Amino acid sequence: MTNRITTINPATEEPIETYDMMTDAQAEQAIQACYAAFLDWRLKPLEERAKVIGAIGKELVNRKDAYAALMTREVGKLIGDSRQEVDLCAAICDFTAETGPKALADEERDIPGGKGVVSYAPQGVIYGIQPWNFPCYQAVRYAIANLMAGNGVLLKHAENCTGSGLFLKEVFEAAGLPKDLFTVLLIDHDQSDKVIANRLVRGVTLTGSDRAGRAVGATAAKHLKKTVLELGSNDAYIVLDDADLDVAVEACVQGRIYNNGQTCVNAKRFVITEKNYDAFVERYAEKMSAITMGDPTDTATKLGPLARDDLRDKLASQVDESVAKGARAIVGGSIPDRKGAYYPATVLVDVAPGQPAYDDELFGPVASIIRAKDDDDALRIANDSRYGLGGGIFSKDEARARELAAKHFDTGMISINGYSIAIPNMPFGGTKDSGHGREHGGFGMKEFVNVKSIYLA
């Protein structure tokens, strides 16, 4: 009997669609077809590739409402967030189409006795393993950059957003991308390892947990395949002595509940100096307690369900363990009695090392508030993590905050006096257990190219 995938609406618990998974032979054929399409695509002029990338952005906008509705059905995203996600993906296409030809153009350099040329050649088929929290964006983020570079692209999407992956393939081909150049693989984890080992696959990129990153990274290393890994985080937002509390509280609420709290760069740990601690906690708890759960298709809803029941249950378990080890839930903290994978906006205080709320990533609308003695202690606590993806600093002294961000905050992305997620012209990625490699900002287009040195005598 053929293995199948059934997607489930996490708000209603009702089935959406069922899909047949690929056999090993079908997966192999799909990889070969992608490679065959790559052999032609790699020879296209940069400007021609850019034209197709720009057309994909326009097609995304044309299908925004349909795509947004599908994502909300599959993973419970607020409908407004789903629409914004499609807009972001269109902006990524626009940025890539505009900057790609120049970024990937040959560079000439003077060398003794002649001229040197640095050429950025596409490598082949790049395999992406992507999660469910941004069904369009996670796929677009690596796919568009690699298509611009001239590579072929494979996608193994999370099973619960299978429809979103297939929808994206339709969008790409409707915009003029050659058939099979972007291929969605409906496969399991064992088959995924075989894809990584396939001789036609030249690189692997994964967005997911640090546990998944270790597993995929080890398999890729065994076959000498380069990886880009964008993994988890427990981003710290620090409120210094001179912070504007109105600005800090507002941004920290937004940063925690954005995308139902299921974003790798959500604000997760809030490190507050002694001077501001009591006032911040009171005001923050008041705002979080006012956030009610509801139907994600309703534009008035502020917090939808988590993407799956098991994800909700894991989050609840992490909260319960943190409370058992000394934390206190002053807002939320328990699974509601209602249909759907819902979990309330939650605020934990007395958070300390040894608790999941301090040490691990809580992927949902749960805020961990940590008391610091002073500014130096706040930065120490922020860096006291195995992760290093994003973070934030609140201070009225912008110059000092910028220096702390550049020289002392051990993380890949830092927001000052606000909350930011992803912007097409800025690099995206982290350090430590949050992975390696960069996407966006032009960096992603060069992660999987062969940088050639050509010597002209």
UniProtKB/TrEMBL annotation:
Presence of the UniProt keyword NADP in the record: yes
One matching Pfam family: Aldedh
Limits of the Aldehyde dehydrogenase domain: 3-454
Matches recorded under Gene3D superfamilies: Aldehyde Dehydrogenase, Chain A, domain 1, Aldehyde Dehydrogenase, Chain A, domain 2
InterPro entries associated with the record: Ald_DH/histidinol_DH, Ald_DH_C, Ald_DH_N, Aldehyde_DH_dom, ALDH_GabD1-like, GABD/Sad-like
Gene Ontology MF annotations: aldehyde dehydrogenase [NAD(P)+] activity; succinate-semialdehyde dehydrogenase (NAD+) activity
Keywords recorded for this protein, A-Z: NADP, Oxidoreductase
Record-stated family: Belongs to the aldehyde dehydrogenase family.
Name the UniProt record assigns to this protein: Aldehyde dehydrogenase family protein
Species this chain originates from: Falsirhodobacter algicola
